[in-house]
Amino acid sequence: MSPSFVFSAPKSASPKRFGVLTLAVIAAAGITIAAAPADTLAAGRGATVPFVEQEAETAATNGTVIGPDRNAGTLAGEASGRKAVTLSGQGKYVEFTLTAPANSIDFRYSLPDSVNGTISLYVGGAHNRDLALTSKWAWYYGSYPFTNNPGDGHAHHFYDETRALLGTSYPAGTKIKLQVDAGDVTPATIDLADFEQVGAAATRPANSVSVTDYGATAGDTSDDASAFDSAVAAARSQGKEVWIPSGTFTLGHHITVDQVTIRGAGPWYSVLTGPRAGIFGKGEPASCGTSTYPGNAAVPGTSSAVKLYDFAIIGQVDARVDCDQSNAIGGALGGGSVVQNLWLQHTKVGLWLDGPFDGLTVSGNRILDQTADGLNLHQGISNVTVTNNFLRNTGDDGLAMWSEHDADHHNTFSFNTVLLPILANNIAIYGGHDNTVSDNVVADNQDQGGGIHIANRFSAVPLSGTTTVARNTAIRTGVLDSNWQFGVGALWFDGRDGAITGRVDVTDLDLLDNNYEAIQFIDSATTDVHFTNVRITGAGTFAWQIQAKPTGSVKNVVATGVGRAGVYNCMGPDAMAGLADQGGNSGWSTTFCGSWPTPVYGSDNGGTTTPPTTTTPPTTTTPTTPPTGNLALHKAVSASASQGGFPPSNAVDGDANSYWESANNAFPQSLTVDFGATVSVSRLVLKLPPSSAWGTRTQTIAVDGVKAAAGYTFNPASGNTATITFPATSARTLRLTFTGNTGWPAGQLSELEAYSS
Fold this sequence. Notes:
By secondary structure, the protein is mainly β. Among the domains are: 51-196, Sandwich (Jelly Rolls), CATH 2.60.120.260; 202-372, Pectate Lyase C-like (3 Solenoid); 636-755, Galactose-binding domain-like (Jelly Rolls, Sandwich), CATH 2.60.120.260. The protein has three helices and 57 strands. It has a 13-stranded parallel β-sheet. The longest helix has 14 residues, at 225-238.
């Protein structure tokens, strides 16, 4: 589908399709493009933006360039392009040169936690001003849900960004310098800067009511929400628009809207702020209902004909609390509603929309520095077009459709640029039917996700109809999942809640400089999936990672620069037999089965200085019993139940970092290994992951018919290992039954090792 709106910019600006700008990133990564000319890989894809982006590491600097580093939770790893510049003392600077006229700067930076300060801005060699910096909106801790409590560990989400109008327009060639002067904060890390020619503030429309007419006051900290409520009510009753003039207004609660237009002077001029700042349609879910997280009174129904244009919502949210509706835009906005040219920053979610409803266009928005998703179409939403939006630094999925209870359908994510989600995926489709993901550019996701995700997960209505994934580009996506401890694909399919049986068409896809594998299938089977014209250009591990069997077809799927092997497959020689070869496929004939290998990259080495010693992909072999005598290694294994992503095969894969976990809150649970022949067993070594993140726990385990149930303690300080011994027993199969776990309500094992002595 063609974009229905080109990101608005002043007539003097020169908007750029972000996919074109991405070519500089591709070149900086050192990728050798063999499958297609570089200008075809991202050209015409991604959002059209009114700014020019420059990376700090390519600018003039006397600071320290950090990276490349692909590890999550590192300062370079969370930077755009996996590189940035640290200014660690007085006189250190990054100096950009304008390539087009500009009168504004928006730059992405990181400070140490709990630090505030300034940095000096120079324009054309002259000091322009000091810019305030803060770590308040960055440095989240823990695993989901995230906090700002350093005691929870697992620091991430290090970066924030700030913006400033420069007061006048400067021509191309002007030097713009960020420098640490006396009294400025240090160290400060600069990732990138966006330079824009911002047009003059718009003037009040003739047929409008202003929020200032009803008592709103710009520039102070008084609560203007009641004045906004009154202006909205008056505008609707009089058939007029609501006008937000230039200035910053504080909202103490969300503004609920229906059949009304709200327009600002421009997202650089009209700003809404406050911990509750937001515009919501009807159908808003209740917040937690406490004084800490107050919520608006629920208004049932669906809003229609809501038009939101040309203002910013810059909130004050510094932690993720899922029951708190501290989102910028929310509720049900259907019936021809429009959200256009908004700047959404520092809220929990940019747009969390709850259905069922039909008919909405979301276009030309900037969604930055969110605690959770950038945009989520949740539950029974249809005929929504999300196009030409720019997203950077979201705390969860960048763009998502989540068909919980009711199917999302006939929606389109097109021509968007989605960068640096800290958790999960750049774009995700959870269930639903007949949805489209097309012409997007995604890059640099960080943990527990990939670039594009198609899944039956989170109790979503299963995928059906046809899901279309067409003409997208993914750059440096896919991760080493911090829970699973194996690679996640740049494009990945997960049938966690059941097999994916709806048709999926993947066409004209470019997967560039993949961190781990390019394409992955996991959990249950994916059937009726068809790949045409897929270019895999650089992959740290595999072109394909097969952890569930797909069926469908492959045509013109070409892989170059694969680090380890063409295919990861421990499921047998028929694992990919269901994908009919329609010709033109190449570059992925080798296979591998075993512990997850260290990635090998063509352009860098994951931030390390010494490349891995083994770069030749091993071929498929039948695993043999290693010298240690572990009789269970790589043997057939089954379980009474397992959590998605933690299958029983993890307990015999030889990797102590991956693990099996049973269904939760449902003891007893069992794990059974089949040795393939009768063997003599007298000792079991049971392991959990060695990470200190695993607290000490005692599991109650019986070896059926061999040893009665007893408590076995796993302590990370001593290797998280427990040993069970018993008289030599001849058996082909061995079953462990779990009836308790003091650390988690499930049976858990990372390795079941069996020995004859």
